[in-house]
Structure formats: structure tokens, C-alpha cells
Amino acid sequence: MAIQLPKLYKACVYDQPGQISTKVVDLEMPEPGTGEVLVNLTHSGVCHSDLSVMMNSWPALPRPTQQNQVGGHEGVGLVVKFGPGEVPSFIKLGDRVGIKWVNWICGSCFACLDGHDGFCSSQKISGYYTPGTFQQYVVAPANYLTPIPKDLPSDLAAPMLCAGVTAYSALKKSGARSGDWVVMMGAGGGSRHLGHLACQIASRSMGMHVIGIDSHEKKDFVLASA
Ligand SMILES: [Zn+2]
Ligand SMILES: [Zn+2]
What we know:
By secondary structure, the chain is of the alpha+beta class. Helix content is 22%, strand content 26%.
């Protein structure tokens, strides 16, 4: 049964890129294209990278942020509509899914084939190249969504889609295995608050032993994380 969708919905845009300024506007409901889905977002994290995009201060992004860009790249919501064509079998209508900083990759360049999605030369960044997750509905590529486990609440899942992915990816690429020791610089946070997530993922999920390095006032927090 098709889900009834409104014609207009709310989005938060950068109305004056280069300055700290946002505006809530009404947008027309987008139509998912081939290989895409429409997601009804319920949660979005807010990341320091969003601030950088708003302020045109992210050095790796080539051009100033366009006016009325919808920001955000840590979104969780429900799949409410499929575009035409085949969709991956792991996604069904009503599933809870996540949208990340890397919104889309080509899947065929050297970096993609080597498993380095973050270096795809054609990658699209959510909330910069595509309308992001600071809105009620977003179109996203079906094959690049992240299914959210049933028991993980959406508010906890949202930051995992950026800070969590980054910390996990670094641990995976380090080559360290269960039972190995890892040294975590900035274990209590670091510049983008990833350290404590890396401690938790390393010790609780990957079975590693953690040596945390940070300033002394963060000692208790780091020990509680690991
Ligand atoms: Zn982020
Ligand atoms: Zn690629």
C-alpha cells in the first residue's frame, strides 16, 4: 500500500553561506529516481563538518556552499518510497536506514574497488553536493543506505553514521585484531569528539586493549568509555 505523502515539507537551509545563519523553509516533495529511495527522516546528528560547510571553511570541498543548501549528513529515518527499477533486496518499505557524509560512490574507480569509499573521485557529500539530512524527507541512493539494527535507538544511531563510522574505519584499517593493544591519541574526545567512540568500539566491539592518551581531566571519562 502506498504511503500518503504531503506535497510540502520542512527543511533547514543555509540561507547565507559564509555566515552562521539558517532558515526553515517549505520544500516540494522530491521524487526518487532510478535506484533511489525517499526517506522520511526522524533524526539527524549535527556535526562540526556541517558548520564548516555552512561557513565555506571545509578546505577539501571545491566551491563555496550554494545558497539555500540543506545541510546534514547523519540522518536516520524510514524508507517511504522506491524509485523505478530494481532495488537492493536488503531494503524494504518501512525499514529504518541511515544516511552518511559520503552519500554516494561510483563503485568502479580505483579507490572504490580498493574499499576506500572516502577517496572515490566521484563521491557525493550529503549536505553539500546533495540536499542533506536537516529536513523531513530526503532522496538517497538505495545501494548506499545503512540499515539500522532493530534494537539501536535512532538518536544513538545518528552520530554513529559519521563519528562512529570514522572511528570504526580507522580501527579496521589499522590492521589490529582482537586481543591486540591499540594506542588512542585524544582518547577523551579529540578535535571532533571521536576518541571516546574509538575507545568503546575498540574495547567493547572489537576485543582490543586500549591505551588512552589525553589530558588528565579526561581520565575518568576515558576509563569509563573503554
Ligand atoms: Zn559528521
Ligand atoms: Zn569511486
